[in-house]
Amino acid sequence: MSNPPNAAVTPASPAAQPTARSLTVMLWIVATGFFMQTLDSTIVNTALPAMATSLGELPLRMQSVVIAYSLTMAVMIPVSGWLADKLGTRKVFFSAILVFTIGSLLCANSHTLTQLVLYRIMQGVGGAMLLPVGRLAVLRTFPAERYLPALAFVAIPGLIGPLIGPTLGGWLVKIASWHWIFLINVPVGIVGCIATFIFMQDSRNPDTARFDIKGYVLLVVGMVAISFALDGRTELGIQQATVLVLLILSLACFVAYGLHAVREPHPLFPLDLFKINTFSVGLLGNLFARIGSGAMPYLIPLLLQVSLGYSAFEAGLMMLPVAAAGMSSKRLATRLITKYGYRSVLVTNTVLVGLAMASFSLTSASQPLWLRLVQLAFFGGVNSMQFTAMNTLTLKDLGTGGASSGNSLFSLVQMLSMSLGVTVAGALLTTFTGLIHKVTEANSLPAFHATFLCVGIITSCSSWIFAQLSADIRSTAKKTDPSERN
User: Fold this and answer.
1) Are 54 and 174 contacting, i.e. CB atoms less than 8 angstroms apart?
2) Which residue numbers in the chain have pLDDT < 50?
3) Which pLDDT score, from 0 to 100, does residue 89 have?
4) Are residues 193 and 231 both part of a single domain?
5) CA-CA-CA-CA torsion sign (381, 44, 29, 405)
6) Residues 195 and 64 in one domain
7) pTM value?
8) Do residue 276 and residue 226 come from a single domain?
9) Is residue 405 located within the same domain as residue 363?
10) Which positions fall inside the Major facilitator superfamily (MFS) profile domain (predicted)?
11) What is the number of structural domains in the chain?
12) Is residue 370 located within the same domain as residue 385?
């Protein structure tokens, strides 16, 4: 866990005060690192069929490539801030870029699906540390009056990365090959390592508390066990009895962490956070509502390519209405919350998001292009409003004391739900395609229809969580980190 930015920190060396030029370069370094991390969370989605063909795999069995990256980031987020406090921000950020770059190079040279998954895990280890450590470096280097504009600058590339990822991935597959999805990170990573070594100020916290290794292990085992339980049956052929054991193990680990956190003086995530109603409801709502939102960037490009015959580039272009509508609707969410309150907006909008997802179960090859674009734009708009409302609700009442641990736990839940979203979507898709004797482009559409319908139902049902809010909660109590509003 990282400490609040105003905690006592010690420079790693008695360097002079940073110049305006070095501060500007440092902002660009952190922003670029955040862009690389978020870009790689979506850029592979449109390239999965091309990867499958190259590696001799089925396109509908490639979800582990996405899961490996997001689950690894969820696992590594809790330890990244503590490492920066203990070892120094510059050293850890430099290491994060280096590991991410080497992982990208190895991904591009993978010859089997197993190799690609292992190297994506390596990518995730580096990627998980880029934003938390980079943000911590900014907070400790910039004067207080420049915090907000600095964090806003860092946040913008992080918002752009996931939006252009599918289109960029499809374009690279069209003009070159899927390998370049990873190779483009290499020159950026090399420049980033050099710039970090020269320009980034180094600081560490001498009063860093002992890392809660027991609590960390319990959470990691719980997250990995539930992921394997959901995905292992379909992709690894794990038997039903083993799946049941993994689910029980996951539940036991989460319960054990709760008992541990009560006794531990400095737990990884204090249970007192859950006494804040808006945080606990927002966190649980994020976890379950984002399962559907995490599944859609994986499912839509697959649907377009496998069942409707789109090329990777065409599938990527079809994701642009989702991104454009998402950017346009963010301000609308704030106005609606101010007027109607969080509960009304979130309950209604969660159902709308679920219906938008379920509407893809009506997709057909004869569907007019204009109607498909409207459908994608509608989903992008309501999905973006959902993120804005959920995120501000979760963080609004944390206050200064719980900001550090609350933000870290929130980031963990975001990445875990993305992983679970692809895991659930892959498991459903594999189950439904298993009911078909021989999967072809012509007959795979019913399996997608059933999967979209199930994902939509799961998302709509999560509206019950937000119904537990008080009706009079309307405005944020404090300003939140802009980089968290994704």
Assistant:
1) no
2) 1-8, 12-15, 476-485
3) 83
4) no
5) positive
6) yes
7) 0.83
8) no
9) yes
10) 26-474
11) 3
12) yes
CATH of the domain at 169: 1.20.1250.20
Tell me which residue of 398, 403, 410, 393 sits closest to 78, measured CA to CA.
410
CA 129/CA 30 separation, integer angstroms: 11
297 plus 434 within the same structural domain: yes
> Do 27 and 169 belong to one domain?
yes
Mean pLDDT, all residues of the chain: 84
Domain that residue 223 falls in: 213-265
